[in-house]
Design goal:
By secondary structure, the chain is of the alpha/beta class. The chain has a domain of 216 residues: Alpha/Beta hydrolase fold, catalytic domain (Rossmann fold), CATH 3.40.50. The protein has nine helices and eight strands. The strands form two sheets. Strands 4-3-5-6-7-8 form a six-stranded parallel β-sheet, sandwiched between helices. A two-stranded antiparallel ribbon has the order 1-2. Strand 5, helix 3 and strand 6 form a beta-alpha-beta unit. Its EC number is 3.1.2.-. It comes from Blattamonas nauphoetae.
Amino acid sequence: MPRPESNGVPTTLRLFCFNHAGGSPTVFNTRWAKFLPAEVQVVGIQFPGRMSRVGEPGFKDAKIAMKNLIDEIAFMFEEPEYLPYSAYGHSFGACCALEFCRQIRNRGWNPPITLICSSRLPPQMGVVDPPIFKLPDDELQQQLLLRYDTPLITDPDTINLTLPPMRDDLEALDGYLPDPYDEVDVPLSCPLTVFVGELDKMVPFSKLDRWQEHTTSAFQKSLVKNAPHFMWEDKGYKQTLKRAVQEALDIVGEKGEQVTWVKRFPTIDEKRKEYERTKAIEAEKQKNEPKPETVEKSAAQPAPSEAKTKQSKADLEETFYFC
């Protein structure tokens, strides 16, 4: 089956996009096609409990949510639907994008081409600010205004539609910690780009360095001048994002069939079993290796003469004297 096309241009990269807490994928699906390269297929992720999925229960655990999402879109990682992909996440969505990529890789599926994150502290830092998801509606909105410049909502119907998923997402955000890496579950092997707006009150640029712990490949961070936390319409933001997406397209172009067709890799469970098997073999090998023989010192070695001992002491004292 031929690859999908946009304006007659074959699509070569799929970009999974994860929104901020309480948000929707509208900004991705309706605005980004205007400035991203035509070769990119934007897939804005619609979380349950809002917009077209308002009748579904929301989620309060990002790891479970990503597992359920991957189950739903598994067909996108099989032929003929597969396309090389990158993931982008903004704020809370950055945590989701990281977890999404790790879970896919650990299933033994094609790993991402790149990971792009914006406006979020490294998730392994845990909860930095006091949780607000349990606050009354008025106090919650005031905190969102103070932290993220989120406009206040006064219409009761809109409040009833928007605040419940916001609370769910904030609870999921506060509860998210990525699983620690070990000898088997290692960091991602794709390039990672992270950036933040200069006017973001919650994410200092100086705190972004620990995002590097999530990749063994290239890492870069950028500061978008004069941009706030929500920088959708900022020119510098669009340029930074477009540059990061173009880097992913360049990788696809360079690697060609290495990344354009479905491959299967060992799952995380298979890797762990192989690691434990190898460790057991090494331990058994060390256990059965003969111990090196020890050479006993002869008890018949002659003791130094008393004269030589006295002479040595005299030489030593003279040496110290002249130091």
